[in-house]
């Protein structure tokens, strides 16, 4: 008799709590929430578009209930400034799902840590040590090596007699650059040889990444409705196995670096930096492992996603592609390849990268912030424990702050210099405030480098029989926004053939 009573009373208590919250606080408006499930069944799969639609109906700040959890979504630059600057400290905690809590050892890393002494310490390590201008410059040859390897690979494929005139899967080449670049920066490892064959550690690394994604996706509904969790128990054993496997690989790589350092001194890779700074910053092994995997999680998908969207826009807009190529021909010429030191002389190329990040931010809702106290935003109450999302995708397309916001027009950034590293709240691909992405400059450099090489070396056109305007520009659902239909394009070489060789660099 007791069990049915408990099953009935839990939802009623949750409903009463929800009603109490709404009567006690002046919450932002929003779509009507259903008992127990809230708005979960009304949210369309591509959430940032759905929230932008709701903001059109209810205003720039809305309440969305994920089960019994209040989520506040802001979609204007003025409100983004309130969230990320004026009330930044009160909103700097993280909402950790059960899987995020497991992966991060309850916030022992940077991405999932709540705001406090631990976060301040690891953030300092990232800003002053891992992503300092000096280290980014020291690691530049790795980025240039990988981008020239991509060019060589595309050249081989598009000049193969069997492939002439055929389209190539652009994402494949961008994904290889992003993967090799981040594993080399973080671990000092290129898991793939010159023939594209992956070694044993690389296969293990890939398996760990895909298993992590699978485990993370397995809990969706029960995350939002706490009383349902007993029906969807956390697979403790699967998470423990995953964690042990990840740690085993990371420790083996750390051990290799420790031995190499004793023989030949410290290198610039993140793993070496963290191991040599361990005592100075009092970093536990869990924190070092967490930080290395943060770099991989945050850096692997986002750069490839941003470059793919940019290429789609350049193929849709041949005028822009041609203008960027004219700038490259003028500055770099036809007798050498571009390097990152050319960036300062390539303002249009930089504007192309910026415009792609405006229209297609890789994390369109950022990661949710959580309020650590009661706070007011836009005149509404945000109770302690609520999640706050900034819809950077909607803000970057807001006609109130952008002229012709849906048009891909890089010139807008030559007419007005707009910061995109967290100081201008109209453009926030990397967030802002205490939780701004510490690797923003690294991401910008890699995206600009990929685009510069792709445009300098090749002319890009749609597959035969497809018009530029027919390219599918819709997004896949998820935390990061892959193109729903991966981009296919025809690459035609435009430089002398000797400029398509990889420039390998070992460090």
Automatic annotation (TrEMBL):
One family name in Pfam for this protein: p450
Top-rank taxon: Eukaryota
Keyword Ribosomal protein: no
Similarity comment: family membership: Belongs to the cytochrome P450 family.
Lineage: Eukaryota, Viridiplantae, Streptophyta, Embryophyta, Tracheophyta
Locations listed in the record: Membrane
Topology relative to the membrane: Single-pass membrane protein
Entry protein name: Cytochrome P450 98A2
InterPro entries to which the protein is assigned, alphabetical: Cyt_P450 (IPR001128), Cyt_P450_CS (IPR017972), Cyt_P450_E_grp-I (IPR002401), Cyt_P450_sf (IPR036396)
One Gene Ontology term, aspect cellular component: membrane
Cofactor: heme
Keywords (A to Z) from UniProt: Heme, Iron, Membrane, Metal-binding, Monooxygenase, Oxidoreductase, Signal, Transmembrane, Transmembrane helix
Signal sequence, start to end: 1-16
The keyword Membrane is assigned to this record: yes
